[in-house]
What does this fold into?
Amino acid sequence: MYEFNHLKKNLKREFNSKTKLKVALLGDTATQFLAIAIKGYALEEHIKIELYEASYNQIDLQFKNPNSELHTFNPDFVIVFEAETKLRDDFYKTPLDQRDQFAHYKIGQIEDYLNIAKTTLNAKLLYFNYAEANDQVFGNFGSQYEKSYIYQCRKLNFCLAELANASTGLYIVDLLSLQAHFGIDFIKDQKMLIQADMYFSIDFLPYVARAISDIIKAQLGIFKKCLILDLDNTLWGGVIGDDGMNNIQIGGLGIGKVFTKIQKWAKELKNRGIILCVASKNTESIALEPFKKHQEMVLREEDISVFMANWDNKVSNIQKIQEILNIGFDSMVFIDDNPFEREMVKQNLPQVTVPDLPQDPAGYLEYINSLNLFETAGVSDNDAKRTAQYKEEAKRVKAKAYFNNEEEFLASLEMKGLVEPLNDFNLPRISQLSLRSNQFNLRTIRFNEEELKRFNADPDHQVLAISLTDKYGDNGLIAAVFLSRQKNELFIHNWIMSCRVLKRNVEQFTLNSISNYAKANNCTTIIGEYIANSKNGIVENHYKDLGFKRHNNYWHLNLCDYKPFETQITTI
It folds into this structure.
């Protein structure tokens, strides 16, 4: 972890930061050092933050005064920190007969802030949950007594979680988890709190800044999608080729418990939608044996999207995995117990995240969890299907090798496409695709579910969702276009697509669908725009390749001259 002084020095260094954001910071204690840490850590992630730091203890005023500096600043994100010490003071001021309603009153206040952030500021709200410190007025009994401070503090944290779960635009900075890991004495600097009303300790500030950065990155679509695992002494103890299946260490005894916990964790990630892959120096049939036959294995063959067990180097195997999955190397995490293998991957594939595991396997999982590698912006029912979809993709890649002609291969897939407007069923998936897509994302405009509903509510707007199936399985929802009618012109507000289906005529199929919609609504011209980001270079010539003509910074397609593309996709 970076030290605070390192983050402070970052503010004087030059960074190539293509992403620029406006962030407001509000607190009921002094936040000067927190502001420095947030900006300094963001620069490490190549994000440049223009930060407005509100005056001390002006949270309510800044939100509720429409002429405040917060409203004038027009932020992308608003961060609010309230110290548990101030929360306790507020609780003590509450009349005795109203203390059992303290959490409800406070959550109502936060709900007001959220509504202002969403409807007036059009900003996302990052709210710290509250560190939990028992004031010992009632001792242990306070944890079950409704009118005690600790009871209301814990209730408030639960209510805050419920509010975030039920709302869009509210994201919790999980100070409670950091407290559980580090302890409150590390989090809080009691001397600085008394002398300068500054809550967080200098040593803790970088961890807070990382937590905030992780949430912001996830909202920008920057997060990990794939976990690549070594096998020997990583998923089980011992070497399968030497020890044999019956002698590897796994299960409920001794060091085997460590590896079982790692497998359970990986399985939960898979259930959440993280792609699991294997890259191991082993003979494939021997490496697969525990997945098929060992009774105490948690992970099974069907949990692994791409299984690479051979005697090639790990760099080569990870490159092959990337080719099959068609995701960025920066979306991958590689876990291996061997320092040599880790260093090889770091040197040759620097975009891949490679944690330096501790020497003792007993510390593997705790260390990995401390890195918070798999932050997300949301979940959908489709996440659980992702492993099956990528296993099917591996079959397509394998089948493609048997065809010399691209058209014959595409025809052999027997693809069927479905075009639908936005509805309650596809809403979460379209939002998630919007948040996750980085490479095939023409204008890098992202929508959460509520923003999507607002966009689609405009009678001149339309969202089209594209789903694809073939003989290998259901690819699910793989593309979406966000359209805006302007008299006789149809503007493509954004066009996103999963890279899993590149080079399968989906782009052409989608354009045919857009043109059909345009003609049905008396539009004569389709207009698109490409806005470059650090990752979407693959679509720089997207509109040009589809026959659009450039006019200044926009691309125009005259529908009078447009002849629909012939594709290998049958419309359902």
